[in-house]
Amino acid sequence: MHIPLPITQQINKKYCLLPKLSTEQQERIHSKDHIVLLDTGINANHPAFKNSQLTLIDFTYPQGGCRDDIGHGTHSAGILVGHDKDGFHGLIPDKPLIIAKVMGRCLSKQQKFNAILQALTWCLKHASLIIMPLGSMANHPKIAHVVKQLSLRSIPIFAAAGNYGHDKLLFPAILPDVFAISACDNQGKVLPECYQAESDHYVIPGYNIESTGLTHWHIHSGSSQACVIAAGLTIHNYLKK
Question: What is the average pLDDT score of the chain?
Answer without folding.
Answer: 94
